[in-house]
Design goal:
Chain B: It comes from Sulfitobacter faviae. Chain B: Keywords: ATP-binding, Cell membrane, Membrane, Nucleotide-binding, Plasmid, Transport. Chain B: One of its GO terms (molecular function) is ATP hydrolysis activity. Chain B: This is ABC transporter ATP-binding protein. Chain B: Its main location: membrane. The structure holds 3 protein chains of 3 kinds. Chain A is mainly α. In chain A, about 75% of the residues lie in helices and about 0% in strands. By secondary structure, chain B is of the alpha/beta class. Chain B has 10 helices and 13 strands. In chain B, helix 7 (about 190-205) links the parallel strand 8 and strand 9 (about 210-215). In chain B, helix 3 crosses helix 4 and helix 6 (about 160-170) runs parallel beside helix 7. Chain B is globular and about 65 Å long. The two termini of chain B are about 30 Å apart. Chain C is about 70% helix and about 0% strand. Chain C is mostly helical. The chains are: A mainly alpha, B alpha/beta, C mainly alpha. Chains A and C meet through helix 1, helix 6, helix 7, helix 9 and helix 11 of A and helix 6, helix 7, helix 11 and helix 13 of C.
Chain lengths: ~300, ~325, ~300
């Protein structure tokens, strides 16, 4: 097991570094960081001076190497815009994004799993069709549109919830729904398919033959097995949610890492963007890794192999 | 004479299909006394498994079950509520199935699943359940029982898993155990052991056993009573001695010809076959269901077939001996 | 006396329906597929005929007719859905917006399809090191936060139709690679591939004549899914201001432009989003339907 973990870890790190290298090159090939730093009114000489000062005239690999070395120690440089260490900038905002992500996936699980279970118990019934409809519609709806509609309906027309900001827990409700709904279809379908499959298994028949009641059969026996791939899927979806957070945070004016990403991109704040790309990809890698571990932990058959 | 533990009269099972109603089981009768072993014999699709599921109340929603009587220790099973059935299942009537490889839940340990069988019906503590599990694992011949408790099903072989299934079925000391082809999926060498085990346990615990099988050799070894099933009907029932020594129904005779019987079959003789295939059971079945394959069939086999009884031995045939002697032999 | 038609139907009875007939029956029996396809076709026709259907030039600004309400809010039929803050006819922009979405979706899907399929088939067919490299690249791509990277690149190169298409095309190949790789590996094991190799067929020939036809159905399904994905992504990018730039009439951009006036004129936000929803829904229905129809055993 340990060997398995180490090997996966090594591969994961390699992937992370490749991602950061690619994004570094992209940004490097972009514009001129010296020009961005110097500002619009700077002269050609000022820009040249800045370039030499920051070392932008050195070969890309050298610059990357330097950046990587610092990054590994937690130093991501200084933001061009804020003139503050990027690391602390991100650290401040990350809690908002993480909270949003956790709430989002929880919301998705709490709605999609029960829906999938019920749909599986009564296939082709009304509730099955409703679940299918929600799943298909959910995948087609643009998240920014959904967010705006929710704001119009709940915040403005009904006045139940605040439209933006992060002051109270109420502020997180709408963003959670917008972030979470995108993960619902896949989770629901997987739960439904898994339950349908499991409910036809022999060990369910055995459980009933032992005299277990339907609820016990459903939850302790069936769901316990069907949920295994769903948990992995949820972990992977969690990894994707960070990307989705950009849109959600900007619509609801939540000052998280996603919002920071958008701002930084718009301002050509390369160090921040660079760091965020690395961090987002690390999160994805961690979550997919977690998915594998959870899979092995929940399924005894995977453990011994 | 004491009341039989299990008494079934005119059990009928109908399955609605796209092309009409499939009459899977049509009016079977049998009794089973405490401590007796009944073997239900028949080919695949004869309805044997469905019958056992019907007894346990484990049929799917789409199958319609009807019977004049289906009593277990006086309790009428056809009208029993879900709650009543659940109290019986696993506690007083247990069942083990054909596929040991997939009949155990892969996510829980053997110990958990064994304990569950007991804890569902008796108010005992977990350690007590655990002890009983060990006791039963040993009874079914599993060594190092205590270490097995923390193992998972995938860590056990098919033979071991089936033994665990048997142990699980016995946790509450049931009065009846139904075994649906428990050894078909196992090695031949293990088969004999498992069947011996079932038989001995039945004797020891005064437990009635219904063993469903298509293997006549097995029947000869363990049965007290035999019921021969064909295409949803019981064509012949009786004590094991009668069935083997004086088989009356043409189908039973056909079956016995298919296997070599020590002492009866001559060396070098050809084993028999029963030509033809099982008829479709969709829609009404006229007369004797075996007539399409019976070497003695006559036109009258399309009509009502009388049940002929001689003590405990019963069979359905238009001929009193199950054989056509001449045209004049027809009696109603 | 048997006529030609009865003779044919007798023959049909003996030989049974052809695979083509069975496929056609499945296609027309599948509601989702039909609805999706019909809607998509309608929208495509609207997009193609835009210059003739749209009442006005979507780029024509007119400060005099700014912010006119739509017909159902007291406006005139001259501008059925009103005008935007620059006096441009809303309905015309909406119609031309279909062109943008469909164009981006189709071309991006095409580009990413080519890249992903090439990678996936190579990995599945050749295995070994090629597979290892491709799998690694897929993992790298999956680890990348797509929205973030897309935004960054567009910000660098400047937002425009071409840039957006290119960025999406270069980023969305992952599912193609994964699915084509799996399908190719499955097909590769089949005997007719071994047979072709034994008779000395060249690799390109085998790929084209044995492998491709058998993975084509999976390919079509993924094309539809990624097309929908590209359309949604472009809309999100444009909404955030880093996609297609004004004055190009992208639906995402229209939502963004409308959001400031959302309180008083909600249709400015509702309508473009709704048509996006309908388009993506149609494509998804079609994709799901195609999957069900070409391989019913894969139905989840």
């Amino acid at each position: 097991m340990l060997q398995f973990i180490l090997k996966r870890l090594g591969l994961a790190l390699l992937v992370a570094f490749t991602v950061s290298f690619i994004s570094f090159s992209l940004l490097f090939l972009s514009g001129d960081p010296a020009a961005a730093l110097a500002g619009e009114t700077a002269s050609g000489e000022d820009i040249e001076a800045l370039r030499r000062l920051y070392g932008f005239d050195r070969p890309m690999l050298v610059q990357y190497g330097e950046w990587l070395f610092s990054a590994l120690q937690g130093d991501f440089g200084e933001s061009y815009y804020f003139r503050l260490p990027v690391a602390s900038l991100i650290a401040d905002r990350l809690s908002v994004t993480m909270t949003l992500g956790v709430c989002g996936i929880t919301f998705a699980l709490l709605t999609a799993v029960p829906l999938g279970v019920v749909a599986a118990i009564r296939p082709n019934s009304i509730i099955d069709r409703v679940a299918l409809f929600i799943s298909v519609a959910g995948q087609a709806m643009p998240s920014f549109w959904f967010g705006l509609i929710l704001i119009v309906v709940f915040a403005i027309q009904l006045g139940w919830l605040p439209p933006s900001g992060t002051d109270t827990w109420r502020h997180f409700i709408l963003p959670t729904v917008v972030l979470g709904y995108y993960a619902m279809p896949a989770i629901m379908r997987l739960t439904r398919a898994g339950m349908l499959d499991v409910l036809n298994s022999d060990y369910i028949r055995t459980a009933r033959a032992k005299g277990a009641n339907e609820r016990r059969v459903l939850f302790r026996h069936a769901l316990r097995n069907a949920i295994i791939p769903v948990v992995s899927l949820a972990a992977v979806q969690m990894g994707f949610m960070l990307g989705g957070s950009i849109v959600v945070e900007s619509i609801f004016a939540l000052h998280g890492a996603g919002y920071l990403a958008w701002e930084s991109i718009a301002r050509n704040d390369l160090p921040t963007v660079q760091a965020l790309i690395l961090i987002f990809s690390m999160f994805y890698i961690v979550f997919t890794f977690l998915a594998d571990v959870l899979n092995a932990w929940l399924d005894p058959r995977m453990r011994s192999s | 004479m004491t009341e039989p533990l299990l008494s079934v009269r005119n059990l009928r099972l109908d399955i609605p299909t796209g092309g009409g109603t499939l009459h899977a089981v049509r009016g079977i009768d049998f009794d089973l006394n405490r401590g007796e072993t009944l073997c239900i014999v028949g080919e695949s699709g004869s309805g044997k498994s469905l019958t056992s599921l019907a007894l346990m109340g484990l049929l799917g929603r789409s199958i319609k079950r009807n019977a004049d009587r289906m009593t277990f220790d006086g309790i009428e099973l056809t009208t029993a509520s879900q709650g009543q059935m659940r109290k019986l299942r696993g506690a007083r009537m247990s069942m083990i199935f054909q596929e040991p490889m997939t009949s155990l839940n892969p996510a829980y340990t053997i110990g958990d699943q064994l304990a569950e069988a007991l804890l569902l019906h008796r108010k005992v503590s977990r350690p007590q359940a655990r002890d009983r599990a060990i006791e039963l694992l040993e009874k079914v011949g599993i060594t190092a029982a205590e270490s097995r408790l923390s193992q998972y099903p995938h860590q056990l072989s098919g033979g071991l898993r089936q033994r665990v299934m048997i142990a699980m079925a016995l946790m509450c000391e049931p009065e009846l155990i139904i075994a649906d082809e428990p050894t078909t999926a196992l090695d031949v060498t293990i088969q004999a052991q498992i069947l011996r085990l079932l038989h001995d346990l039945g004797r020891e615990m005064n437990m009635a056993v219904i063993l469903i099988t298509h293997d006549l050799g097995v029947v000869a070894r363990v049965a007290d009573k035999v019921a021969v099933m064909y295409a949803g009907e019981l064509v012949e029932t009786g004590p094991v001695g009668d069935i083997f020594n004086a088989p009356s129904h043409p189908y039973t005779r056909g079956l016995l010809r298919c296997i070599p019987l020590p002492g009866k079959t001559d060396r070098g003789a050809k084993l028999g076959t029963i030509p033809g295939i099982v008829p479709s059971l969709v829609g009404e079945v006229e007369g004797c269901v075996f007539r399409t394959r019976c070497p003695h069939a006559v036109a009258e086999c399309r009509g009502d077939i009388p049940k002929r009884e001689d003590g405990n031995h019963a069979f359905r045939c238009i001929f009193p001996d199950g054989k056509r002697q001449s045209e004049k032999e027809l009696t109603v | 006396m048997a006529t030609a038609s009865t003779h044919d139907s007798l023959l049909d009875e003996i030989t049974g329906p052809t695979p083509g007939q069975m496929l056609r029956k499945r296609i027309f029996g599948h509601q989702g597929l039909l609805i999706g396809a019909v809607v998509l076709i309608i929208l495509t026709i609207i997009a193609i005929l835009a210059p003739w259907i749209a009442p006005h030039d979507p780029y024509a600004q007119s400060l005099m007719t700014r912010m006119e309400p739509p017909v159902f809010m007291g406006g005139t039929w001259e501008h059925p859905l009103g005008t935007d803050h620059l006096g441009r006819d809303y309905l015309s922009r909406l119609i031309y917006g279909a062109r943008i979405s469909l164009l981006i979706g189709a071309v991006a899907a095409l580009i990413s399809g080519l890249i992903g399929t090439a990678m996936g088939v190579a990995a599945g067919y050749f295995g070994g090191k090629v597979d290892a490299v491709v799998t690694f690249l897929i993992n790298v791509r999956l680890a990348m936060p797509v929205v973030l990277v897309a935004l960054a690149v567009v910000a660098i190169l400047g937002g425009s139709l071409q840039v957006v298409i290119m960025v999406l095309g270069l980023l969305l190949w992952d599912r193609f690679a994964v699915v084509m790789r799996a399908s190719t590996m499955q097909v590769r094991r089949r005997e007719y591939v071994a047979a072709a190799q034994v008779i000395g067929a060249s690799t390109p020939r085998i790929l084209l004549s044995e492998i491709m036809p058998n993975i084509a159905n999976n390919l079509i399904v993924v094309v539809t899914l990624e097309m929908a994905h590209a359309i949604l992504l472009e809309a999100a990018l444009s909404f955030l201001g880093l996609g297609v730039q004004p004055p190009t009439p992208s639906w995402g951009l229209m939502v963004s432009e409308g959001k400031n006036m959302m309180l008083f004129e909600p249709w400015l936000v509702l309508i473009p989003g709704a048509v996006l929803f309908v388009l993506v829904l149609a494509i998804n229905l079609m994709g799901d339907g195609l999957r069900d129809v070409t391989a019913p055993e894969n139905r989840s």
